[in-house]
Design goal:
- By secondary structure, the chain is mostly helical.
- It is about 90% helix and about 0% strand.
- The protein is rod-shaped, with a radius of gyration of 20 Å.
Amino acid sequence: MHPGVFRNDSKISGAGMLQDQNAIKEKLNSFLQRYVEILHCYELNNC
């Protein structure tokens, strides 16, 4: 395999992995926000 082609492929896949990580972080953040809201709801007994 030509080293230049391989280098370009790894750059592309690396960018894709970064995008996936950002998507996972956003999902985690929204899940944590919902979880905290539910916890507060139970603490105040106003579910």
